[in-house]
Structures are given as structure tokens and as C-alpha cells.
Known about the structure:
By secondary structure, the protein is an all-alpha fold. The chain contains 23 helices and 4 strands.
Amino acid sequence: DETHETTMFSMVDVRQWKSLLNAPRELWIVYALKILSSYSYFSFALVLVLFLSSEFGMSDVQAGYIYGLYGVTSTAFGVICGWAVDFLGVRWSLLLGAVLGTLARVVLSITRSKLIAIFVLLSALPFAESLGIPVMTIAVKRATNDSNRTFAFSFYYSCMNIAALIAGPAVDICRRVFADGVSFSPALHFSALRMVLVSSAFSTLLSLLVVLLGVREIEVDDHGAIRTFSPNRTNPISHSWHVLRQLQFWRLVLFTLLLMGVGTVFRHLDGTLPKYCTRVFGEGVAFGTLYAINPFIVIWCVPLTGLLFRHVESYDMIVRGSFLAGASPFVMLISGDRIWGVVLFIVLLSFGEVIYSPRVYEYTMQIASRGSEGAYTSLASAPLFSVKLLVGVMSGWLLENFCAENPPPARNTRAMWGAIGFVSFISPVFMLLLRSVIHPASPPTSSSSPSSSSSSSSASVSVSVASDRAFETTNNTRSANNSAKKQLTQTLT
């Protein structure tokens, strides 16, 4: 029996890989884009609060507020641009986001003006990112079908963590190699942190070149055939009203709000951990390498978890993983200021992430109606940025009061991490209590085959699909009537 299970697992593994290798080129272009854009994001986020304090003299609280406002504007642009993404399509959204993102990061790496830096952080950069992260998720959905989508999203998530694994040590290398900075001219001096931002801008520029390789507007049907996909060109108001009337959209809103609690832990990795490490363990501590433990675990474990638990419902996986990730900060409460405590905290957080985070993408795409993926995906990615406000305010206040750079007040880091753990653990508790509201049970099916789990997971949105078809039919009818009116007018003229 054990040999049979091993053989079956190997067959599934090979079959899944073959399905990805035979996928349209857009899937692999998106994987490359995910690595480049994720490196830009993680390397930048890992040094942002340090950059604001060292380059512009901001206090912990001030840097925390800017970090938080950056997240709020990212969320606002993300929700607004969700409708624009549905209108523009994948290709043009990615092109616009890459151009604007490159310019924004270049300006940040050069400017000596605090006002310009804050303006870019709260406008151009979040707008560019809102045209990147949701769009790539949509592209993965359209380049796959039910037979390989779970594995494709798992590998997509691993690509993000490959970039995070590179970003952590890259930050440490920049801080060591460019410790005294780099001078290109007497008026143009780049500190080590600015060199990190330069590398972030270069990665975004490379992503622009990758998009130009040839991203098409396509989708793959259930039989693996590639067909052209036409972006939703309906009136934005009608389109928005259509989405807002869908019950599953509001379930996703509630799900997104609850997910924000556990999302704070991941943002404390780049909003709180760097300053904590340098103040407790010294300036020479390699906090980027400690940070890299997380993506190292995720890279290897996410594809394996995706294969082993591919028949488990996404919502159940999200709740289980959230419990583990939400409880991880309590390790720091127990261990105190110990390096091994930091390592164990990141390890537990990583295994929780392995279980739940990739399924958030898939869960969102399962319930997103066709042609409205931009609105749904932008909402699903909102916790990644919106928690920055909570983390920014929390991080600045907690660091100043419990882990000050120059005490007094006396340091009490156990209390700091205990508060972080309390906020993060709220998410899984409420997701478990409100399961019947967010993810009501699907009607029973007669099939008991492995594929039945996939069909049952999509049963809850069958009504929405029907309404989408009716909506599309109505729009097509209106277009035809308008065209007939124009022809009749021209004939009479």
C-alpha cells in the first residue's frame, strides 16, 4: 500500500508539472514577473522604516505613520484600480504599472527632499503596485484550468518567496559592501540603503522588459485550448453595480477584513523586526538573513503542500494555517531576547504561511465572476497593504515605548511581541466562528471521486456564473441595438 501511494504521488507530481510545461507562455512570463516584482517589493519594504529614519531623520512613530499611510494608499488605489484592470486587461495594466513603478523607485533612491519622498510613497508607487499584484493573479487564473490551477498557484506563490529569499541576503550584502556609501559625483552620494532602492528600481525595469516579450489577452478552457479573452469594456458604473450586487463579493469583503489580523505578523517582519534586531543584537546583526528563513521554508514546502492537500477545501486550509501563523509571535514572548527565539518565531510563521497563504489566491479566484476578477483580486490583496497602517502605528509606538533606541524608557520586548501576537490571533478565531457566514456549506453531490472536491468548491458560485452570462447577454444585446441605430441613421443621412 505504501509503495502504491508513493507511485501514485509521483504520477500526480509528474502530471502536474507536465500540465504547467504545456501551459501557454503567459504563465511562465507571469512567474518571471512575480520574481522580479516581488524582489522590488521585499527589498524595499525591508529597509523602508530604516531608510526614513536614517535618510530623513524621522522618529520611530513618524516612520511608522508613513509606513502605514503607504499601505492605506496602496489599498485605496488597489480597490479603485480593480475596475480599471478589468477594463484595460492584463497586458496594458502590467505595462503601465512597470513604467510607473520604475520611475517612482528611481526618484526615491535619488531624492533628498522629505516632501518628495513622502509624495512618491503615497501616490505613484502604490498606484503602480495596484496594477501589478492583482493583475498577475488574474493572469495565472486565465492561463490555467481546474486540472492544474491549485498547483499553478502554489508554484506562483513559491516564485514570490524565491524573490524574498534573494531580497533578505541582498539587503545584508548592500549594507556591508556599501557601508560607506557610493559617490558618483560630489553632489550624488548613495548610502547603503539607497543602493538597496537602486537594486529595487532595476528589478522593476527588468519586469517592464519581460512584459514586452509578449503577454497576450488569453484564457484556457477546461479542455486546455487557448482562446482570446476580451477585457470587460462595459460601463464602469454598470460593471461596479453588477459586482456590488453579488453576495459572494460581500462575503469576500468580510473574509478580507478578518484576514488582516494574521497579516500584521508578516508586515512586522519588515516594519518592526529590523529595528528590533539592530537595537537588541547590535548593528552588525544580519536581519536580512534571518528574514530569509521564511521564504526558504515556503519555497520548498508550498508545492508539496499543494499536492498533498489539493483535495482539502481552501477555506479550511486558510483557517488552519492562520492559527499557526497567528500564534507564532508568542514564541518571542516566551523566549525573550534570544536569537533562537527569533528563528523559531519565523519558522512557525513560515509553516503557517505554507498552509494558508497560497490558498487565499485560489479561494478568491474560485468565487470571482468572469470578467470581474480585477475587482475581486484587488480586494483580496488589500490586506497585504491595508495592515501596514495598523502595523505602522503599532510598530512606531511599541518600539518607542518597549524597545527604544536609547532607553529610557526601559525595554520590555516581551510585552511588545505579546501585543503583536494578540492582534494576529484574532483572525483565525473569528474565521472559525464565522465560517457558516463566509463559506456556507456547498450542497451535497452524488460523486465521490477526487475531482468532486473541485466541483463542490465552485458550486457556491454557480448562481453568479449564470447571472454573469445574463449580464453579458444584456450588454451584447444593447451593443447590437446601438449598432443597428447607427447604421439606420447613416442610411437615412
